[in-house]
Amino acid sequence: MTSEDPARLIEAYYAAGWTDGLPVVPPSEKSIGEMLSGAGLLADAIIGEIPGRNTVVTASKVAINAVLAGCRPEYLPVIVAALNGLCHPDFAYHGPASSTGGSAMVLIVNGPIGPALGINSGNNAFGQGHRANATIGRAVRLVMMNVMNTRPGLLDRATLGNPGKYAFCFAENEQDHPWQPLHVERGFRPDESTVTVFASNSLSQVYNQLASTPEPLLTGVADTLYHRGSPNVKGFNESLVVFAGEHSELLRKSGWSRRQVQRFLVEHARQRVADLKRAGRLPGDVTSDDETTWRHAFEAPEDVLIVCAGGQAGSWSACLPGWGKKWTRSITTRIDRAPA
Amino acid sequence: MTIFDPTASPVPRALRLPARPTRLDGLRLGLVENTKFNSDTLLLRLAARLRDKHGATVALLSRKRSPSHSIEEGQIDALKNVSDLVISGIGD
User: Fold this and answer.
1) Of B89, B81, B86, nearest to B56 (Cα)?
2) How many contacts does A have with B, using Cβ atoms within 8 A?
3) Contact indicator for A87, A97 with CB cutoff of 8 Å
4) Cα(A178)–Cα(A241) distance, rounded to whole angstroms?
5) Which whole-number Å values give the CA distances from A200 to A96, A157, A168, A210, A295, in the listed order?
6) What residue spans of A119-171 are helical by DSSP H?
7) Which chain B residues are within 8 Å of A328, Cβ to Cβ?
8) Strand pairing of A104-110 and A169-171?
9) pLDDT tier at A340 (50, 70, 90 boundaries)?
């Protein structure tokens, strides 16, 4: 079909089932070509594969979806790196993409590309209002639907899903950071840019306006990370904690290291086996030993991903439970920008 | 302006299906457990029924890395070597 009427084209994309429910930007040969040039890619370049689905992700399809999502061409390298992450064997795409848990694919951008593209890391970092955050996250989800065949009701079996499935992309606030940013923690140089993909089916904001030392603040975080309704109570979680302004400042002033924070959370994010059994989260009858046996959420400090983002004002942070590191792992990928 | 198709179909792979067994009597079973709660329990109960009704035996219980991961090629080879019939499970 061809038309000069944008409204008719938008309706045609709806009718074909190619949107996420929001209107799309109809592509043209010109806009697709400009999008590809944003990452210096040829149309037939292979971005990634998911063997279990016989899926091959090509640059041309990624570019079309990026235009549909409303991206600018310079966003494409971030999208490509994020898709590399989704296709990584350790991400194990099929589970987090298809499970009834309904995970969002959280994209955490680090390095100089974040400010350069205007990816919000400050006020309302998870919310609306910033084109780069909204459209990069949206493009990845459209590729999942249109290229990776992750369609609701078919290979996306989310029971409830969550709003982050439309788009969930933010940059880490690397200014006034208590520690080094996530990508440096993971072995990249500060001047490199990366995107980390992390599957999470929910987001809980943690409030604490009275804590003046790390322990009471982190106790609330630990409670939020692991409770009787947590997605995974098997004890091998990987979860994301996002500290915002006032809380990250408290931690910075305390002098606690990232590793101290992680160790505290590993130690305190726990439940009694008896309580998990009574809640129907573990099988079997409650024994006397179960009353004094603790099951911890995490096996190791590095299982707690810590980043900083959000506004300076307000006593809020956030916890995003993962899926379980034996089933999927967060993947950090370097973003290769197009040659100048 | 033209409509541009943003979708891609799975790239077909040539697969050859073995002939289905016509009888269950005396078959060697391969079980693929995906590590979900009760996956092994359900599969072993099913195998016990096949044993009681048809004399089937469990030749190999293979465990996947996780429900998310595909079964490894080596596991498939091992199953092919010792099984007449393979049962995998489970969903939610």
Assistant:
1) B86
2) 80
3) no
4) 14
5) 8, 15, 10, 28, 21
6) 131-146
7) 66, 68
8) parallel
9) low
In chain B, whose CA is at the least distance from the CA of A324?
Answer: B66
Smallest CA–CA distance from B70 into chain A, residue: A52
Percent of chain A whose pLDDT exceeds 90: 91
Token pair recorded at residue B56: 């089937």
**How far is C-alpha A279 from the chain's CA centre?**
29
User: A187-230, pLDDT tens digit by residue?
Assistant: 999 999 999 999 998 999 999 999 999 999 999 999 999 999 99
Place of tokens 């990366």: A194
Query: How far is A250 from A254, CA to CA, in rounded Å?
Result: 6
Q: Which class for A16: exposed (0-12), middle (13-18), buried (19 or more C-beta within 10 A)?
A: middle
Residue in B1, B8, B69 nearest the CB of A58 = B8
Of the candidates A291, A306, A292, the residue with the CA atom closest to the CA atom of residue A218: A306
Is the pLDDT confidence value at B1 over 90? Answer: no
Query: Which tokens belong to B69?
Result: 């991961």
Contact present, A239 and A328 (Cβ < 8 Å): no
Q: A319 - beta bridge partners?
A: A204, A241
Beta-bridged to residue B20, according to DSSP, are none
Beta carbons of B68 and A4 less than 8 Å apart: no
Q: Inform me whether the pLDDT recorded for A339 exceeds 70.
A: no
Sole residue written with tokens 């009760």: B38
One DSSP character per residue, A251-297 reads HHHHT--HHHHHHHHHHHSEEEHHHHHHTTSS-S---TGGGG-EEES
CA atoms within 13 A of residue A157's CA, in its CB half-sphere: 9
Q: Report yes or no on whether pTM surpasses 0.90.
A: yes
* ipTM field: 0.91
Q: How far is B53 from chain A (nearest CA, A)?
A: 29
Name the E strands within chain A.
Answer: 46-50, 55-58, 104-110, 169-171, 194-200, 204-207, 239-243, 270-272, 294-296, 304-308, 316-320, 331-334
Cβ atoms of A82 and A198 closer than 8 Å: no
CB contact under 8 A, B11 and A12: no
In DSSP terms, which residues pair with A156 in a beta bridge?
A152
Residues in chain B within 8 Å Cβ distance of A142: 6
